[in-house]
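For the sake of transparency, this paper describes our internal protein records without simplification. An entry from our holdings is shown next, in its original layout:
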Amino acid sequence: MRAGGLNRVLLALVGLLLLALGGAVLAVGLGAPSPSWWIHTGPHDVLLTKAERTHWRGRSWWWPAVIAALAAVVLLALWWLTSVLRRRRLAEILIDTGDDESALLRARALESAVAQDAVQQEGVAHAEILLRGRRTTPTARVWLQLEPHVDPATALNGFTAEALTRARRSARLPSLPAEVRLRTVGHRAERVT
């Protein structure tokens, strides 16, 4: 199971659990008979009595344990968030080899090849490529840094006609949509005497 599918399953399970608990609290609070598995019996019953709330407060280990548990929950949530955000980059591309088989191509290898191909183009000083999307239908985000004398439309047409087309053909992709951002290399003004 891929990371996106695992995230959806975990979120669905947590959501169902919270919905069941919240629904049970709401139903009992509105006067419905409490379920057999519920620990409280009526609408005037509190979730935690004063004795239950203050029972462990006087112990020396209570507050460090509470803080450690909350810190662990926060760290797990941050780890999950960073793993979700980090997976925005495509890891591999599924290539149809033409003989009812398929092969896997590392996305970083294709990104590097397209970037090197783009830099060979006249007027392109630097190129960065990021492949995203699905293994079978990737999309590209491209940043091209152009020399000051280059026409942006010419550079864009050259990139899409050459480097991007070669990448699409070599990976046997039916299409390779790309979002291209152009900027120019800054240079110092020349001094005229």
In short: Residues 165 and 176 are 8 Å apart (CA to CA). The two ends are 68 Å apart (CA to CA).
